[in-house]
Design brief:
single chain; about 700 residues; alpha/beta; nine-stranded mixed sheet; four-stranded antiparallel sheet; about 45% helix
Amino acid sequence: MRMIDVNDVTLDNLRNGLLVSVAVGASFTVLLTGKSIRDFSAPGPRMTEEVMSHYRLYLLASLARLAFFVFLIATFMAFLGAATYIAACLAFNAGYRSWLAAISVAVAAGVFSARALLRTLLYSPGVIVASSLYSMHHFYPLWQRLSPARLRALDAIVFGTLAALFTAGLIALARASAWEAMWALGAIGAAYGSVQQAAGRRPEPRPVPRNSKASSPNILMIGADTLRADRIGGMGYRRELTPNIDALARRGSHFTDCYVPCARTAPSMASMLTGTWPHTHRIRDNFIAPEDTRLQVPTLPEILAKLGYSTGAVGDWAASDVTKLGFGFEHRDLAQDQWNMKYFLRQGPKDMRLFLSLFTQNWFGKTFLSEIYYLGGVPLTDEIGRDTRRMIAKLAADEKPFFIMSFMATTHPPFTSRHPYYTLFADPGYNGPSKFAMARLRDPFEIIRRQGEPKTEFDLEQIIDLYDGCVKNFDDETGRILAYLEASGLADNTIVVIFSDHGFEFFEHETWGQGNTAIGDFSARVPLIIADPRNPGGRVIKSVVRTADLAPTLLELAGAAVPPHMEGVSITPLVNDQPMPGELPAFYETGVWFTDLPGTPEGHLRYPHLPELLEVPDKALGMIALKPQYQDIVVLAKDRMVRLGDWKLTYQPLTDGALYRLFNIRQDPACRHDIIREHPDIAQQLKQLLAQW
């Protein structure tokens, strides 16, 4: 065969293979889209027909966008099959057959889809849990056969075969002096190799030179959503989960009794970063009206920026309230607002979402399909850790000191984590519905449906084992961030804060979740560690403090004055191992109840279940908020508590009055024994404090 014939035939075959790949990709896209629409299950709230009618065109546009990316990915995989088949024809001097090309195209798409599924099933099964319409039991036999070594062996076979066929094909073209075809086939192979390498590449930022000219200390806050205070070392828990955080605590101050004002992310964050109570900053829950996102009080990042700091925030979907409220951060690497109708619709139906999520947990997904990359229920612990280190590198390169907040969903329900963390403490023989994640919490409104279920409906020990694996995951990532500070020479001038927005209840008081009860401390109490390298300590501080005290404390540690609008106080004396002028009262209120909860007393103030409470007041923004007519009753119906010293008073509003209970936290940390009749004077004092608040 003459050189021109080999060139022409090979190039013609590549063009034909591309057309076949496009046809296969288009067919797959049509089938997947059709099935997805038939089985449509949106991840967001089931709003009124009026709301959904408004977004019909938006939904169609969102489906078209997702379908485009399905087509792009499917065609990309398919064309590799066509190119490999052509290389094999050249290597074995076989004739090109269109029907064999079509089979090769389909096989390639199937093989690489299966590879993505297997890797996701082993390393991040929560991605499948979050979007699968099917019982995870179907995946258990396959999962039991998976291991990192077997996946590496599979990759060696697949990519080794591809490399061998491409190499043999290129040699055949070189021998025929078909240079144009050889360069074309070589370029295709190189392009696919580069994409594969880029998809799996997770580059770590290099340590940066310290910003030695910064006169004020840097501040780094590292937080995990839903991290219970009792999981930190030294709190008496049966497992040692946090060696890196414990080592940091030994160099700083560990506050064992720190309280949030509301165990929901948005109000908790707002109090932490403004130093004010929820009734001052007006963020009472996660369902915020658009006008309330413009905070009326200065925030810690804004104040620090005026003092010469560079400020940045990093986080996954758990930090989306930071995006919604802004808080004045100059640099942001965050997910978009999650409680948003347009965001939910952009995520699309589950079948499409599942397919796309297998290929988008990488830079490509973050850039082009952020709604899939930041999928609710799927923590991005490794990614947020790297993004945090990149933010440190970026801001430390400046001469100014930096303030960075890193917040990740690692310990948030449904308690998914990556391999090997979800296996660390779980019973290997467990094959129930919560093997990879807390069962039946695949979207926010499945959480609502399960909120009222009793303890018997949950495999509680398995769920706790999953949670503890998540805690260990957070600690390990925290260790990597702290090691990066050390390697960059920043550790001796950086105040590090470990925090959470709220804890979690594992049926200690008849219900699960966060922000549902004021009786126990498991939602309201959070870990707080402040490690200032200028004041090494190792102090364990059992005095009651509040997250509203954090902003004034950090300002004072940075050498700045505390603004008069802040209602929290600086607890710097405790950090410096000195007494406070007096005991601080901690206040707390519950969030919006999703449904009727077990253990709610008869006659408790009530309101409709959550879906009926919600609306989208600004259709252009898509933000989901409480309807104005329910805002007052939601606030009135909140359970509340106040703690002062060892004493804690709880309040539950009834239709004909209120139910108060009194507990001694030191003697009864689980709050099981109401002793209000034995101590009426203390109860009256705490009632007055709560009423003033």
